[in-house]
Amino acid sequence: MRAAVTAHAGYTISKIDPRLYGSFIEHLGRAVYTGIHEPGHPTADENGFRRDVIDLVRELDVPIVRYPGGNFVSAYDWEDGIGPKEDRPVRLDLAWHSSESNQVGIHEFADWADAAGTEMMLAVNLGSRGLDAARAFLEYVNHPGGSYWSDLRRKNGREEPWGVKMWCLGNEMDGPWQIGQKTAAEYGRIAFETAKAMRAFDKSLELVVCGSSSPKMATYPEWEATVLDYTYDSVDYISLHMYFDNHAGDTAAYLAQNARLDDYIGTVAGVLAFTKAKKRSKRDVYISFDEWNVWYHSREQDRTVLEGRDGWPHAPALLEDIYNFEDVLQVGCILNTFIRRSDVVKVGCLAQLVNVIAPIMTVPGGPAWRQTTFYPYLFASRHGRGTALNLAVDCAGYSTDFASDVPYLDIAGVQAEDGTLAFFMVNRHPTETLALDLSLEGFAVGAVIEDKVMSGHDLRQVNGPDDTPVAPKDGQDAAIAAGRLTAALPPLSYRMIRLG
Ligand code: AHR
Asked: Element (H or E) spanning 168, and its range?
């Protein structure tokens, strides 16, 4: 089956914000404790952070990490995580039915972010708390000194402020599961007032207001319209979240789910444009897609903890989805969608980064290892930076209950600052090879400089701590001649080809 694609140097979508490839660490399960932080682990640094995990995060080149939640943040008192560790309280985390030791707080996380070469994106609690706690936290984190909260930070060992630019105004405030859930109007007012106070401290902050937790929410997209009505001129981003699953065991439908993602982004982009016009605003508000991933493999096994049958364990194994080869294809399609919508989606956070629905897993006391989905994220993060190309794609497609004409080829293209090109491709066809014929117009590229392919595995094949069989191999057949890139894309495969 032929897949004809045209790329033209003058036909682009947008400059990609590198933060499109961000991620997320929540105080949830083993993300923090025995994930990033494990004093006594053979690779632990002087702060108790696992160096093996830091190396993998650095390999992924994660530009920004959202912290500390997630549902956790909606009943979190940030002050519990500062001061001498022996004085920090153990609290019950109502979101995940666990105990929180508070041995990691803002100081420790900031040290970790530094070591991992990433920026922090902090969330404030607008569930059980509100404006006052948010403004105190901001002052603690960003004010140089000479005020109550900034001097307390200095007393606690950090002289310089961290200068965090990006702040989330709560988390999933539309969700009935959220501690302190609000109606759109209640939340819109609180978010507006919180943004006003935070901006009174520093106008240059980048503020993220909560959009819907999922396009399945009954309040979507009215939620966005109401919340933006209150906040459009006070925020920079509206957050969207979406998780993907193949409970139905239907690969074709599963791999078409990014059509839903695309609709979701398109609808919210429409609400943003509507609100901008309604308010006669000159500003643009963008989307921060700050939670997305495949999440379903662990749902059943998590019941015991989440229903409280285990009491209040500290750092129990939760949301430890073990990803398979099929999920590689799904994550590849999702990332391609974000690249294609990079005109409106500026920030993205793969949820999450370590142990909790994550590309990186750890064994307590043992090794850290790469899940199958580590790789499409790695390739997009490392080579999907620059300018997104507006590709013309001509390829047969198929239909599902919710989408028609889903092309068998899912493709995104990016031109890097140095002129090199990267194409990310998923062949969704279950049995047929796609003969890629990609016409390159107006680019100064003449050679294949990298070709990585993931194919030929059973869809249910997984990686583990001792063996990672689902890993990329070098592609063999990609060629450029007379301004055309050709390659054979095997059925159900992921591929990245770079040209220079
Ligand atoms: O990422 C896991 C959870 O999913 C987050 O805590 C929450 O925001 C979302 O429902």
From this structure: strand 166-169
